[in-house]
């Protein structure tokens, strides 16, 4: 049974999704200047997934994301200034400039360090869930990844062990249909991913990943199951990557998809979808607030010092 | 001090740390098997239960990531592989995650985990059950690597590895599991990164690793009978390698032999000779000698063992070559008892 979602929650979902969109657009706008010398995997078009999932979590719950994680970091409450610092490879970055755009972290907000390797963090979430359970803590671990990650062997391994041990872990598959520039039909048999997860005995659902409310509701349900000892859940979120795999541009020039193909997805833009459900005043107010916050974060990151030590201070021998 | 077998000493290390710290747990494929990982986890399931002696599916890569993440949250897992040959299945988690994590996030998290791989040398185990991967693992910054040579060290290094805040690869040889010696009681630790001078000498520095340590001691004893003073150093830890102790010894003796249970190139022997060449070149009276396995996989047939594995005899020959004033009447065929062909096999 899905509980009704109140206006306050919808406003919150919109605020998070909008902030992610505006941050990604700002990065894309400034990226060509060459100040951010780190590969960027923008999540433009997929904002409803992190916004919906993280709205159902607390700081005690942990998210284990991947290289396309600006959105997950921000939705989980990660500090914007420190994220921009990291993307500028500065010492003020969340990883001190040692990680870059693909390695974001904010432990205070329950955002685990992210990895550049596809599917590699799935067992991390399972191991964290085991830790929570061992310590009798009422927390959940969330593993998020793309459709390509479900092709890795470690995906099956992680689902199997999480189910066997009934661990409080939630798997979120952002199915944007693409692994870099290869369509899912060329990589997987035409069998729904969530059905495969179901085969491991994992409670599995598929939702419109461009509808933050649906993602939020499915996550809430998964959290209840996890916390009452029913084990893992799998949520497949059908979504669309608007920009290229890595970089600030579109990829229509590559020929594997056209601007025309993208039209139907643009009509399902997750931000526009939420805008229909919130007041115009709120939209305007949030846009103004975020623009100031983002400009400030960009400015500070630009001015911040680079790291100077080859070894992070904490790893230097006394 | 009680006398324990190598595998009993490892069990004692688990027992002592698990009793002292509730965040220490064991995990691996087949660790609740009645054979109890060659006896090294005997009785622990009964005492600590299935949440601390965790049986894993045959999914080594996942288990590594699983243990790794729990370690970043402060648990102290020991991931056990019956054969070291399963480590290559898990290289993404070891190389890209365990080894990188602390650095990649500016030192915010530590990774206090142990990955134990057992080398299955002997009894026809063949190329995929007997190889030596400590040199390969030691190539990766961010990891620590230990190779114990006797029961007491097996315990002391295991406890130190469990209590260390970095990922430690612990490689032990099934070949040595039946060997016993006096083992200190309690939470006995051996400092990681520090070599052990087993026998002091002035004529030649003989560095050995794992099962080669016993061979080195036999060779040193034989040399002593011919009036030659050999300094035998057990490396104990491969990474970080205690170059300081070796350099000081070579500066004293002017001669270096390294006996490793590994292939000849790109491994510990090469790294050590490289450092000595750079830091103590002037002290060397002759070119160092490395005694290693031949540069190809390990054969299964035990008829080839004697040709493949170097023993005390090869070390003695090398000593004789470097110290040309020493003449042996007969180079003894004597070898350590664990190498005497009485291995219990097949598992």
If you had to describe this structure to a student in words, what would you say it looks like?
With 318 residues, chain A is an alpha/beta fold. Chain A has a single domain, classed as Rossmann fold. In chain A, the strands form two sheets. Chain A has a five-stranded parallel sheet with strand order 1-2-3-7-6, with helices on both faces. In chain A, helix 1 runs parallel beside helix 11 and helix 4 packs across helix 11. The longest helix of chain A is centred in the first third of the chain and has 24 residues. Chain A is globular, with a radius of gyration of 19 Å. Chain A starts with 6 loop residues before the first helix and ends in a 15-residue tail after the last helix. Chain B is an alpha/beta fold. Chain B folds into two domains: 180 residues, Thiamin diphosphate (ThDP)-binding fold, Pyr/PP domains (Rossmann fold), CATH 3.40.50.970; 137 residues, Rossmann fold. In chain B, 33% of the residues lie in helices and 17% in strands. Chain B is built from twelve helices and 14 strands. Chain B has a seven-stranded mixed sheet with strand order 3-2-4-5-7-6-12, with helices on both faces. Chain B has a five-stranded mixed sheet with strand order 9-11-10-13-14, with helices on both faces. In chain B, strands 1-8 form a two-stranded antiparallel sheet. The interface between A and B is large, with 39 and 33 residues.
């Amino acid at each position: 049974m899905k509980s009704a979602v109140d206006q306050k929650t919808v406003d919150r979902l919109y605020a998070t999704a909008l902030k992610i969109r505006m941050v990604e657009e700002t990065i894309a706008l400034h990226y060509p200047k060459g100040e951010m010398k780190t590969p960027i995997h923008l999540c433009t078009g997929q904002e409803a997934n992190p916004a919906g999932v993280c709205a159902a979590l607390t700081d005690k719950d942990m998210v284990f994301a991947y290289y396309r994680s600006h959105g997950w970091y921000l939705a989980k409450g990660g500090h914007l200034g420190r994220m921009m610092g990291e993307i500028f490879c500065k010492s003020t970055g969340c990883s001190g400039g040692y990680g870059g755009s693909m390695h974001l972290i904010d432990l205070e907000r329950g955002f685990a360090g992210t990895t550049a390797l596809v599917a590699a963090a799935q067992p991390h979430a399972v191991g964290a869930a085991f830790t929570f359970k061992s310590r009798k803590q009422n927390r959940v671990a969330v593993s998020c990844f793309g459709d390509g990650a479900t092709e890795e062997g470690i995906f099956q391994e992680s689902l199997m062990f999480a189910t066997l041990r009934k661990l409080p872990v939630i798997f979120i598959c952002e199915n944007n249909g693409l692994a870099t520039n290869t369509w899912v039909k060329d990589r997987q048999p035409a069998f729904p991913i969530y059905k495969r997860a179901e085969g491991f005995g994992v409670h599995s659902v598929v939702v419109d990943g461009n509808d933050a409310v649906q993602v939020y509701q499915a996550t809430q349900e998964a959290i209840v199951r996890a916390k009452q000892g029913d084990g893992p859940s799998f949520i497949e979120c059908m979504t669309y990557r608007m920009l290229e795999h890595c970089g600030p541009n579109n990829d229509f020039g590559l020929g594997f998809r056209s601007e025309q193909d993208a039209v139907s997805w643009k009509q399902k833009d997750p931000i526009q979808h939420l805008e229909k459900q919130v007041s115009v005043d709120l939209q305007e107010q949030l846009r103004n607030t975020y623009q100031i916050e983002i400009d400030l974060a960009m400015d500070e990151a630009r001015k911040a010092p680079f790291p100077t030590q080859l070894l992070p201070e904490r790893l230097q021998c006394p | 001090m009680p006398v324990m077998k190598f595998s009993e000493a490892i069990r004692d290390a688990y027992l002592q740390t698990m009793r002292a710290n509730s965040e220490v747990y064991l995990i691996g494929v087949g660790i609740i098997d009645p054979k109890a990982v060659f006896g090294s986890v005997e009785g622990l399931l009964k005492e600590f239960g299935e949440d601390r002696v965790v049986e894993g599916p045959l999914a080594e890569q996942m288990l590594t990531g699983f243990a790794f993440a729990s370690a970043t949250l402060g648990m102290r897992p020991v991931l056990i592989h019956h054969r070291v040959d399963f480590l290559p299945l898990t290289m993404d988690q070891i190389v890209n995650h365990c080894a990188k994590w602390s650095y990649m996030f500016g030192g915010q998290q530590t990774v206090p985990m142990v990955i134990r791989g057992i080398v299955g040398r002997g009894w026809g185990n063949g190329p995929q059950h007997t190889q030596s991967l400590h040199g390969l693992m030691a190539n990766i910054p961010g990891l620590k690597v230990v190779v114990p040579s006797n029961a007491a060290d097996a315990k002391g290094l295991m406890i130190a590895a469990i209590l260390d805040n970095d990922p430690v690869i612990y490689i032990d040889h099934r070949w040595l599991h039946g060997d016993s010696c006096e083992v200190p009681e309690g939470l006995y630790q051996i400092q990681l990164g520090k070599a052990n001078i087993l026998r002091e000498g002035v004529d030649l520095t003989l560095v050995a690793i794992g099962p080669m340590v016993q061979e080195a001691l036999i060779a040193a004893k034989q040399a002593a009978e011919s009036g030659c003073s050999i300094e035998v150093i057990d490396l104990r830890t491969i990474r970080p390698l205690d170059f300081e102790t070796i350099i000081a010894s070579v500066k004293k003796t002017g001669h270096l032999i390294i006996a490793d249970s590994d292939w000849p190139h790109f491994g510990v022997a090469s790294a050590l000779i490289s450092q000595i060449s750079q830091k103590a070149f002037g002290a060397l009276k002759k070119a160092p000698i490395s005694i290693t396995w031949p540069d190809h996989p390990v054969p299964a047939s035990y008829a080839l063992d004697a040709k493949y594995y170097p023993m005390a005899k090869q070390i003695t020959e090398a000593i004789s070559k470097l110290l040309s004033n020493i003449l042996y009447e007969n180079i003894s065929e004597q070898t350590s008892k664990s190498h005497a062909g009485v291995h219990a096999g097949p598992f």
